Amino acid sequence: MVFQNLALVVLSGVLFASALPEPFVRLDAESLQRPLQSTKAHVQKFVSDGDGPLTSENKTIYEAITGDPRFSRLTKAIKFSNDIIDQLNDSSSRITFFATPDWALRKPEESALQGLFRYDGDVMQAQPEMYDLSTAIHAYEELANIESFHDDSEKKRWKRFLRMLVRVILSYHIIPGQVDTQKLSEVSTYPTNLSLHFAMHDEPQRIRVESSLIPPRTTVNFYSKVVSANTKTANGLIHVVNHPLIPPITAFRELYMAPSMYSIFTSAWQRSGLTDELDLRWVHGKGDKKGHIEGTSVATVFVPSNHAFGLLPKQLQYYLFSPFGAHTLKKLLRFHVIPNLSLHTDYIYNASSHHKHSVPRVYRTEETYDDPLDQFLAEIIDTEEYFVANGYSELISSFNVTALTLLPKHPITINIMKYNVTLPFPGPRRPHHIITKMYANGQRVAVPDIVALNGAMHSMGTLLDPRKTGHDNGRVTDWEGWEDWLPKWAMEV
Ligand SMILES: *[C@@H]1O[C@H](CO)[C@@H](O)[C@H](O)[C@H]1NC(C)=O
Ligand SMILES: *[C@@H]1O[C@H](CO)[C@@H](O)[C@H](O)[C@H]1NC(C)=O
Ligand SMILES: *[C@@H]1O[C@H](CO)[C@@H](O)[C@H](O)[C@H]1NC(C)=O
Ligand SMILES: *[C@@H]1O[C@H](CO)[C@@H](O)[C@H](O)[C@H]1NC(C)=O
Ligand SMILES: *[C@@H]1O[C@H](CO)[C@@H](O)[C@H](O)[C@H]1NC(C)=O
Ligand SMILES: *[C@@H]1O[C@H](CO)[C@@H](O)[C@H](O)[C@H]1NC(C)=O
Ligand SMILES: CC(=O)N[C@H]1CO[C@H](CO)[C@@H](O)[C@@H]1O
Predict the structure, then answer these.
(1) Residue 188's domain spans which residues?
(2) Neighbouring C-beta atoms of residue 137, cutoff 10 Å
(3) Which of 23, 124, 177, 474 is least crowded, fewest Cβ atoms below 10 Å from its Cβ?
(4) Residues 227 and 329 placed together within one structural domain of the fold
């Protein structure tokens, strides 16, 4: 469904001070390798908490969840909204639902709730914590106990507001179709049942999916792990997750929330007066005038990490952030953003033509397998690179697209390659896994497909070099000697 005005509510104040940092922790190189002990612990907890997996066969998702005491808080949230009930109980459709058990909906800090209820009434200025499912549920429960309301109408207004909020949040937990974790392992992003008319022109908001084979695991949006997968119901599947999903905020604000990774980019972006090219916000109406949205509703950004800026020669760093380099900095930054296009490694939405498509498969090679099981076992801890490099993989697609950046004369060519990696286990059912690699003008994207309210983000370990074009895969970007060409490039029209 399309949330009209009510969704503006959500957009306006949303900075997840408490809820967001965790997702981005995963982006640090260090935590990339962190073992997932916590997931294991949660699985054990989930299973030992009650009677094991959900029992569901002939029940709808709604009936399975509401009939299981381990989901009592989620049940409350679902019952706030007839619309959500209808979706989860509709036996004629097939959907997949990410369900959060009670232990994953911990009581928020008292101060978060207090702060929430102190706010002075205009829904457009809602506090950020409200986007968190747990806070919203607790706030709703608290309503009855709060005596400071002037009258019942204030309480009613609050109730309406929280219901809307929960409906938006839960729509983001529903994906169309019956999508098991095997299917999820073949995608990078997936549309949800949440769409908002002011962002992405009503295109569904997406989740980011990451899967690994060893240990088998599925993670959504970096922070939410599937702890019990593929429960069958009469109208689809349930995956139990250890953290509620948080509908994405704007690209700019998401980056701003991860200063350890992107503070240089965001301050450079702001300093160059470009905020609106990646942000989206609600502007209040004055007098009779209606409020309206300002900013960018669809864009793709290749965002260099702090580490990428740190690799530039020191003198260049000083120059870019000096008054003399301001123009160069701005031009360089504008080269990193594609307006009017949301490009993920498996999905493209072109807002100029309203055209959308999945990234097609266009290329297929023969399977090539060696049989060095010993070597394989020795290397198994190694990265996916190993499998690609050593012939356990099949290139199943290579897709290229060229798009204009905010610097019209400097397009970016993006190359997306997908490999089907098959582990050489004996027996007929060899586990397999899809790996995606993405290049922008031949430069490798470090972390692709970070979802945002208003587009797609791809984290880069290097700045895009404007001298490189097309598929310039070979040459390593070297910024030494930048004095000879960069200021000149910046002056070109
Ligand atoms: C579910 O429904 C089918 C067909 O109506 C029936 O055969 C089966 O026993 C039911 N399963 C359970 C667990 O009730
Ligand atoms: C859910 O659907 C079943 C039929 O599949 C129906 O009997 C039941 O009343 C519905 N529950 C709600 C709360 O709508
Ligand atoms: C995006 O597309 C719209 C038309 O749909 C156009 O008016 C606008 O100028 C485009 N923006 C940019 C930055 O190209
Ligand atoms: C998006 O659509 C516009 C208008 O049809 C077209 O000019 C442009 O090339 C398209 N962009 C991509 C990346 O396909
Ligand atoms: C990947 O390979 C396996 C077997 O090696 C095959 O069963 C599976 O269909 C392949 N997947 C894709 C998407 O090509
Ligand atoms: C896309 O570009 C890559 C890198 O240059 C090239 O190897 C590949 O063949 C291209 N794919 C297609 C389908 O044109
Ligand atoms: C935007 C969107 O995907 N809406 C869907 C939500 O789920 C219902 C029921 O499955 C569909 O009918 C909607 O189209």
Answers:
(1) 2-241
(2) 22
(3) 474
(4) no
